[in-house]
Every structure is written in C-alpha cells, then in structure tokens.
Amino acid sequence: MLGIALALLASLPAPQDTTTLDAPVYANEAYGVSVPRPFDDWVFEPGAGPQTTTVIFHPRTALLRDQLWGALILTTFPAKVALRRVTDQRVTGTWQRLLGRTYELISSDSLTVGGLPAIRTAMSGAINHVALDVEEYAIARDSDLIILQLRYPRGLSHDSIAAGYRRVVRGLRIRGAPPPEPATPADLADSGPPAGLVPRSPFQVSAYDALVRYDAPAARVDVAVRADIVNAGEAPGDSLPILLWRAFTLDSVRGPARAVGVRTGGGVSWVHLAGPVEPQGVTTLTFFVHAAPGGRPFPPQMLELAPTGAFVAADWLPRVQPEPDSAGQAASVPRSAITLRFDLPQDWHALAQGHLATDAISLGRRLTTWRSEDVGQSTATFAIGPYRAMTRRDHGFTVSVWLAPGDSLASGFVDSLADSIRDAWDFCGGAFGRLPIDEMNVVAAGLPEARGFLGLLLVGHPGDLTGSARDSTRGAAWLPFATLAREVARTWWGNSVTPAGPGSAWILESFPAWTALAARGTLEGDTVRQRLVREEEAGWRGLPAGGGTPLSEVPASDASDALLRTKGVAAIEAVRRAVGEARFREGLMTLSVEHRNARVTLDDVLAAFGDTGATVLRPYLY
Q1: Half-sphere exposure of 525 toward its Cβ, with a 13 Å CA cutoff?
Q2: Hey, which residues does 76 pair with through a beta bridge?
Q3: Domain with 132 in it: what CATH number?
Q4: Residue 430 lies in a domain
Q5: Looking at the structure, do residues 245 and 324 belong to the same domain, yes or no?
Q6: Residues 25 and 37 placed together within one structural domain of the fold
Q7: 128 and 98 in contact (C-beta within 8 Å)?
Q8: Contacts by residues 471-478 (CB-CB < 8 Å, ≥ 24 positions apart)
Q9: Which residue, 463, 516, 556, 574, shows the most beta carbons closer than 10 Å to its own?
Q10: DSSP label at 57?
Q11: Which tens digits make up the pLDDT trace of 169-193?
C-alpha cells in the first residue's frame, strides 16, 4: 500500500475533472484543509482520484503549459507518514524525471508549518522549454500528507508572484494544527522572491578584507572588499551569485588579473569567472561597492550616512550564497574571518567589532585596522565619526564610551555606566564561558534603540547626563541595566554562537532577553527574579491569540520581539525549573563553549538540556 501511494505521488499533478471553482478559498472538509488563492483573478480546479485529491490554482485565462500555477495535493498513507522518504521519492520519482538534465536542487530544509512537521524543497529547471523555479512544501499530519506546490516561470517577475504565494502559505489551514498569528503588513509586503529561490552556491567565503573610505561632505562610503572564495562543491564552478544589501550598490568586480563579467537581475548579481575553479580550489575576487544618501530608505537602526559621521549595523558584505535557508531561517554556513580597514579624516575614529590592530595618521588621513580572530563576528558593523573617548579600566576589563561632539557625560555617570557593563559582562562570562576579549566600546551613534555586537554597543546620543547611570532618571531611561545586559549578551548569542535553522530567532533574541532577567536576579536577589519571570509569563499570555505561535516558526523581525522576549524567556525559565539550576547552567555552558565560532540549532539546544529539558521545551518550540 505504501508503495502504491508513493507511486501515485510520483506522477505530475493535474486536475482530474474540468470543474472550475471561482472562490477566494478552496476547502476540503474530508481532510480539514483549506487554502486561499494568490490573487483575485485566479481559480481552482479541484479533482479527486482513487487515493489522491489534487487541486490546481492558476490565473483564470492562463494555460497550464505556461507553468504559472500552484497545486494542493492531499493523500492518506496506511501508516504514519515517513516525511523524508516521501520527499526523496518526490525528488527522484517526479522532479528529476520531469526536469531531466535541467534539474537543480537548490535546497531542502526541515521546518514546521502550523506546528506540523514539514520539509520545504526548492528546485529549478525547465518543462517543455519553459524555465521555472519550484517550491514544494510536504506536511505530515499523522498518516495524512499535504503537499503545497508553487511554480515560478522565470519569464515573469518573481517579486509579483511571490507576493501572492506568500498569501497562500500564510493562509493555509490544516485541522489539528494550531492557528497562525494574523498576517501583518510586513508579512504581505512585496519584499522580493523567497529565500529558497536564490541558489545555494557551492562557493564559500573563507575571509574578507575590506577597505572603507568615507567622504564626509558628500556622506558617501566607498568600499573595496577582497574575498577569498573556496569551491566547496563536488564539481568545477565558473560562476557564482553575489548577494548585496540593497543600501549598497555593486560598482564592479575584479578577478586575480582583470575585471570579470557581472550580470545583475532580481536582486542577485552573477559573476562569471575567467576559468573554472576546481573542487576545494580557491580564487580571490575584489568587489567595489558604495552607499550614498538619496537611495532606498532603510530603518534608522541599520544605517546612517551624514557629514558628521556614519554607522552601518547590517550584513552589508557581499555574500556568495543567501544567509537564510529555504525555510527562511539562518542557514548553517561556515563563518568568515573579517578584517576592516578604514581611511578617514584625521580627526575621525572608526569603531568596529573585534580588536584594534593598527591606528596611524598619514598625509592628513587616519588609517585604522580592526580584526576579529579568536571570536567571530556575525556582521561587519562599524561606526565612524569625530568621536572622543572616556575610558574606564578595572580588573583588566576596559569600557570606552565614545561621544560625538555635541554629547556630554559627567564623570560619575561614565563610572557607573562602566560598572554596569562590567557586571553584565561578568554575568555572561560566568553563564556562557569566558571569551578572550577585554574591552567593550560604547558608541553614541544616534540609534533609536541600543544594539549590541561583538564587544561593541551602538547607542543613541545621551545629551547632557549627570549623576549615576543606575539611579538617575534620565540615565536609566537612556541605558537601563536590563538593556545593557541584553545587548552585552549578544557578544555571545549572535556572534560567538550563531543560530541556524528553525528557531533561529528564538535563540538570537530570547537568550539575550533571558540574560537581562537573570543578571538582575543575581544582582538584586531571587525575589526580583521571580517577579520578573511572572511579568514575562503574564506578558506572553496577554499577547493576541495567547502568543500561541510555536517558537520554531517565529521570524526574526521587530514585530516578533514581544513574543520572543516573553514566551521565549518563559520557555527558558521552564527548562531551568525542570532540570534544576546546576544542570541548567551546565547546559548553557555546553551550548556556548561547544558551538563557539559555529552554528547552533534547536536540536543542539534540546540535547544540551537532556531528556527532561527537551520534554519541557518541545511544547514551546513546536
């Protein structure tokens, strides 16, 4: 019976009758599954076979041979669905046969859809000379299998089709699965093709060396990025995709001896090398990029360019493969060593992640170099401007507060600020393991909210603050201890350890948020800790729909911070109570130390806290 079901699924889905349903939603009561149409001018063509129900949805006037359509396939197995086996059978029995020599598997990732286990597969190829990309979700509900297939013909803009397909995926309803959160405008925004349709490149960057030059009057930053690129695939490669943050423009690319060809389209640039790079072979490319005012607007916490200074707090380095996997979560890719060099006006300073390697003045320009070696960084974050430093050093740890010309801090305020940061650093070191870093730079860069990186904290402008950072009303509002502890923790969570796969946002946001709560409990007593835990749990249950979205499905976005900092913290505290303080501390240390300069997944978290912790944690995650 299982073989028959797999054979049926191996056939190309097609409507089984000619009935056309012009309705906003298709619903199948027998399976308890419903799905909306992508756009108002699309129709459904449902049909039922002996063991499989197939529903195709497409534009009302389009032909199926144009490959602009999607399909919902419903079937039941005689036993619990072996999801990976079914997916492999779909790939080998359907897609490799259908796409033939043009078949290319872009990615295949495990995830959850509505709390149910799923595998999302992204492929590309051609059918009847029509080039297309395909996304396919295979979802298991005990013995029921739900397949959602989405086709993107390359002759049409991916962006416009993706906007409708996101509505389909977001609107999929499966009986027995918890309902998803309501869609937000950001969810439905036309933000480009899904990550799964950007090819996973066999090339990897082992090291970046970037020279940043800033033209203060024009507020323009020009960067030359040299990248050492390794072919980690099994076949020679002579072209690779380049993904660049949209605030930056790619001007040109040079190979080892000359300029190389570049083709740009759909947000991805393709670099054509002078010759193939053999497996495990290395080539070096230099990318010339720039950013200037007047381009597409970006959130103020990510980029500022001005004659008085600048900061970049985003993943702006050219990438040779997308950071997310096909499930939209952080992919498990090797970390790259990053060196940042700056060419600035003589009176300016550059602050970046890692440690300051060189600082010299020549011909009226300041030349500085920052390197990250022992502990890797997640982004090439930096701030530049005419800063002046107020430095405090105690017990071998240095806190430097870098102020813009219009900022002012009393000496006592800097003392208490440094003490607070040192307290947070000591807590993190005790909980997550000591790092070979002995300095934290705090830069008044003008951000609306403090953001922490590897040994670097970008904050807003303090104005004229006096008194103590711990008891001054203005000081507490500017940088309260809870904010400091949370952002200091990002040196560990997000840099020393980087999340990958489903649940990335939970690891990236909830562990620093828990750090703020736990550090306050250590300094102020267990009564304070218990009160803070109750507040987080109450905040979680007060969210819309009770905050029922599984943490493994929560995306990394500003809109999800409330859920990640309430339910996410409640989940960590539930594990701590279940396994006991000693076992919990051991699990935290294991996660941080064993995954230093590497990726950590939900499976790693579950394993670190043992069977008891995993049993408590799974209902929060899935």
Answers
A1: 3
A2: 144
A3: 3.40.1000.10
A4: no
A5: yes
A6: yes
A7: no
A8: 472/413, 475/413, 475/416, 475/417
A9: 516
A10: E
A11: 888 999 876 554 444 333 333 333 4
